[in-house]
Amino acid sequence: MDSLLIATPIQLDLREQQELEMTQTSKRLAHIDHHESRLYHMVSGTGTEHETLHPYDPHHIRSHLTEHASQSHYQGQRAPEDPQYYAAIAKSLQNADEIILMGEGHGHSNAAMQLTKYLGKHAPETLDRVIAVESLSKHHSTEKQLLARARAIFRLHHTPPATPAPKLTREAIDPERWIDFCATFSNGNHGRRVSMLLSGGRISPSELMHDQPFFSLAYDTPGKGDHLDISVGADEVDYMHVFNHPAKIFQWKLPDGEVAILEAIDSQGVVCNLNFTG
Q1: Where residue 42 falls among pLDDT bands split at 50, 70, 90?
Q2: Which of 48-62, 106-120, 225-239 has the lowest mean pLDDT?
Q3: How many domains does the chain have?
Q4: Domain limits at 199?
Q5: Quick one: 64 and 146 in the same domain?
Q6: Residue-wise over 191-214: b if at least 16 C-beta within 10 A, else e?
Q7: What is the pLDDT confidence band of residue 181, given thresholds at 50, 70 and 90?
Q8: What is the pLDDT of residue 228?
Q9: CATH code at 85?
Q10: What domain of life does the UniProt record list for this protein's source (predicted)?
């Protein structure tokens, strides 16, 4: 028997998880006015940005709408609502997992709003699956505009909320302790992934290294040069940056005590940040 490998959410990055969720749901876009409805079954290609959009009219709503009463028969007033019209739309949406309704105008003149009232009374389980109801102007109702807006809404609906950044604690390191601190820091963080960014002073922000294994940090006193030596490499030093004349050193710690950032500032205001990601 062939084995089945199931990818759990933790194995997927944000984009992959978003695409997986979107392909596992049945999505409908309904653009509705009092004369016709344009219904779309929106299908997303797995793992790609490409989407194939099929006009969705399984219950022949378009032909039904040609029989809808003309507004001119009511002396300029909007024609009375046709319950069969909304019933036909509701039937076409009943199996959708996620629904977007779009209409033109406001209040009673907006057929999408009238449909929500109908669904609330006759098909509340379908109304529960409506994720957005939007009012549009006639100038923003081309098919291209409708589908672009719907894609954005569906994608936003599948975007998980941002995880709040953990609170960091900033600790200043006494210059009298710099030599011992660097030795202890090197032993405790050797092998962690690190990126280094220079900014401030008169220099433009620049990343000097990205996602490299941290090797060591050393400090030479003013009598020996007055600089920090920042080294990266796995089993040996592959690259070393010399940060001259440090004036202050700080370490930023996560709530669990792990160092997230080492910050050094020189006498000219240039800042060197070591950002640890692993």
Answers
A1: confident
A2: 48-62
A3: 2
A4: 169-276
A5: yes
A6: eeebbbbbeeeeeeeeeebeebeb
A7: very high
A8: 95
A9: 3.30.420.60
A10: Bacteria
| Distance separating alpha carbons of residues 130 and 98, to the nearest angstrom | 6
236 and 113 part of one domain? no
> Which two tokens mark 165?
């950044």
150: Cβ contacts below 8 Å, ≥ 6 apart:
29, 40, 42, 100, 102
User: What torsion do the CA atoms of 250, 252, 255, 257 make, to the nearest 10 degrees?
Assistant: -60
133 within 8 A of 101, measured Cβ to Cβ? yes
Contact 154, 100 (CB under 8 A): yes
Task: Report pLDDT for 136.
Answer: 80
Q: Which residue has the higher pLDDT, 83 or 129?
A: 129
Helices 14-23 and 143-157 meet at what angle, rounded to 10? 110
This prediction has a pTM of: 0.46
Residues 6+ apart with CB under 8 A from 7: 20
List residues bridging with 274 in a β-sheet.
Answer: 196, 262
Largest distance between two CA atoms of the chain = 98
On whether both 131 and 268 belong to a single domain, the answer is no
Q: Where are the alpha helices (DSSP H) in the chain?
A: 14-23, 61-65, 83-93, 111-122, 124-127, 143-157, 178-189
Amino acid residing at 218: A
Residue that wins the pLDDT comparison between 141 and 60: 141
Q: What is the mean pLDDT of residues 25-35?
A: 83
Question: pLDDT grade, residue 190 (50/70/90)?
Answer: very high
Strand partners, 171: 251
142 and 173 in a single domain? The answer is no
The pLDDT of residue 53 is: 39
**Using the 8-state DSSP alphabet, how is residue 58 labeled?**
T
